[in-house]
Amino acid sequence: MITATDAKALDDADPLGGFRERFDLPGRMIYLDGNSLGVLPKGVRERVANAVDKEWGQGLISSWAGASWIDLPKKTGDKIAKLIGAAPGQVVVGDSTSVNLYKCLVAALKLNPGRRVIVSEEENFPTDNYIIQGAASLFGATIRYAKPAQDPAELIGEDVAVLLLTQVNYRTAAMHDMKALTTAAHKAGALVIWDLSHSTGAVPVDVTAADADFAVGCTYKYLNGGPGAPAFVYAAPRLVEQTAQPLSGWMGHKHPFAFVLDYEPGEAMKRYICGTPHILSLTALEAALDIWTDVDMAALRTKSLALTDLFMALIAQECGRHDLKIVTPRDHVRRGSHVSISYENGYPAMRALASRGVVGDFRAPDLMRFGFTPLYTSYTDVFAAAQHLKAVLDQELWRDPAYAVRLAVT
Ligand SMILES: *Cc1c(COP(=O)(O)O)cnc(C)c1O
């Protein structure tokens, strides 16, 4: 029997416990949705206010150089590089994950011109598959999808140009073995693009050790960059100078302010920048990333697994008599940092939970999804969340008709 006292003891012994006060957590909310939109880190508000009032308001155009606005895609990229096993200069930030996927996918197809098959999986995040479909239609490529639970390695033959996968699945939190799949793809002569949206800041990642060709990822989830924060992109240094991404905008030009007729790609990752950087968003992200200089990723992973283990144990203990099915892998090496539970009345149950201050989200058709962000989620939060879920289920609070109506964003 796990008790509140046990959860409190885990919090008291938590080496990452001190990070919670570096975030502006709203009142009494138990926020288990940091895998969708991270919490506001303290200090971000002031940095954005400064960028608006001083850099923009007073400095105006001079701030491009004077406040180093022009360097923000690289500066924020360098901070993220450390979290994914890349070196400074190997990551830039800009555009959305979807757009960066497109850049990498087309660059990879161009590097592998004799092949026209793209491998992904049916359960990949929708935008990944939609971008694949868009690029495939332009390049006359064929898409081969792994079925749920099928190993994508089975689909990699000598005709495959690119393997594009998300490391941690957005629904189930199932985690791929980046190194094994990359090695298998390389053996067959295919290039690999990894979407690290649910990995970065959640699990240790090493694109260099895995020998990934390209990687992209989101910064508004575990990196807490704020709503719509721009995404990052990585290309392996052994490849980057040979790559040509298709969105050849002026800010990725070797000399943007030469205003010449013809495009010439900038050095290394600069070519992955397209247009004018989103300065206010990048300012928020840069400030949010400061926290990570103090984070021990091994400790973060240990706590992430402990939080998800505790939640799964509490679901069994508190909600065992209800028809819930945990779809997240029990096996540590195969698990990211959220837990999803399949339940017929999942949508209204999540709404009922939210009305009690426990915020997770819902993924169609029936998944209740709970994100565990080790920097600000406590074991006590996990215990309380399970108690609330028990109340929602035991008392059938989800039956309130108000919760049946789907909101525009779930
Ligand atoms: C969140 C997420 C995205 C987001 O893409 P945007 O273009 O930033 O909206 C992409 N891929 C995965 C796997 C994600 O989890």
Short description:
With 410 residues, this protein is an alpha/beta fold.
Mind sketching the topology for me?
Blueprint: H1 4-12, E1 30-31, H2 44-56, H3 63-66, H4 72-81, E2 91-93, H5 97-111, E3 117-121, H6 126-139, E4 142-146, E5 160-166, H7 178-187, E6 191-195, H8 207-210, E7 214-217, E8 232-235, H9 279-289, H10 297-319, E9 325-326, E10 338-342, H11 346-355, E11 358-359, E12 361-363, E13 367-371, H12 379-394
Parallel strand pairs: 1-11, 3-4, 3-5, 5-6, 6-7
Antiparallel strand pairs: 2-8, 7-8, 9-10, 10-13, 12-13
Helix pairs in contact: 1-12, 2-9, 4-9, 5-6, 10-12
Bound molecules: pyridoxal-5'-phosphate.
Pyridoxal-5'-phosphate is lined by residues 96-98, 125, 127-128, 166, 170, 195, 197-198, 218, 231.
Give an overview of the whole structure.
The mean pLDDT is 97. α1 runs antiparallel to α12. This protein has 410 residues and is of the alpha/beta class. The strands form 3 sheets. A 7-stranded mixed sheet has the order 2-8-7-6-5-3-4, with helices on both faces. It has a 4-stranded antiparallel sheet with strand order 9-10-13-12. The protein binds pyridoxal-5'-phosphate (PLP). The site of pyridoxal-5'-phosphate has 13 residues, from α5 and α6.
Essential attributes:
410 residues; alpha/beta; 12 helices; 13% strand; binds pyridoxal-5'-phosphate
